[in-house]
Amino acid sequence: MVYAAETKEKEFEKVMDGYTGLLICRLHNLCVKAHPIALIPVLIDLWGEQKVFEEVADCAIPDDDHIEAYPKNEEFLFAIGKGVLEVHPEFILKEKTTKVGENDLRFLSFKIPPVDKNRRDILNNAVDAFYTEAKGQYADTKAKYYPQLLSNLQDEAKEELDNYKKRFEDAYKNNCDIAEQTVNDKKKEIEEAYQRYLQNKATADQTAQEQKAAEGEDVKSQFKMPTE
Question: What is the pTM of this model?
Answer without folding.
Answer: 0.80
